[in-house]
Specification:
Length: 187
């Protein structure tokens, strides 16, 4: 495993908030580079998020179709959402699964985490596998519209290969879940 080299660290000299919205803040920092020069770094701060791979008893994965405004298109994704201030990351996953799909469970496994936009954001997405799901009624926010469906892991991987699933967090979480499940055949 690679180690951190202190010879690569940039040090903040000053920081300015360019704009701040409900969830994101855009910052501009002046930094001292390892070679002694200075430079500017623009980036977005994000509260973090959780993505859930919900596994049905038949081995299918619960997915959703959702319109994403920045790209003006409908995407196939796993249930996911941002971490509320002070909220435990597992609680975020449980909340988002219920809100978006109506499913609940007491069976959770953390698969890992990912940094989706390291060049311009500090966002961290935590990934969970959830199984032995109980169906119920979703509790979506008023501004949330989505369609829930399920597909086999094989179909999910085919959708990645043929470009139907292009969402990064969904792709990584599905691959992490597939790897975990393959190494735990008793699952």
């Amino acid at each position: 495993m690679p180690t951190t080299s202190t010879d690569l660290i940039e040090h903040c000299l000053s920081s300015k908030t360019i704009t701040s919205g409900g969830m994101l803040t855009v910052k501009c920092d002046q930094v001292r580079l390892p070679n002694g020069n200075t430079s500017q770094r623009e980036y977005v701060t994000h509260p973090g998020a959780v993505v859930v791979v919900p596994l049905l008893s038949n081995g299918h994965v619960v997915l959703e179709r959702q319109f994403r405004y920045p790209l003006q298109q409908v995407f196939i994704e796993l249930p996911a959402g941002k971490i509320d201030a002070g909220e435990n990351i597992l609680v975020t996953g449980q909340r988002e699964l219920l809100e978006e799909t109506g499913y609940t469970t007491n069976h959770w496994l953390k698969l890992g985490h990912q940094h989706p936009c390291i060049g311009y954001s500090n966002e961290v997405i935590h990934m969970y596998l959830a199984w032995e799901l109980t169906a119920g009624n979703h509790q979506r926010d008023e501004d949330e519209s989505l369609e829930v469906f399920d597909a086999s892991f094989e179909d999910c991987l085919d959708m990645i290969q043929n470009g139907q699933i292009t969402d990064g967090k969904t792709i990584i979480a599905l691959f992490m879940a597939e790897k975990y499940l393959a190494s735990h055949p008793q699952f």
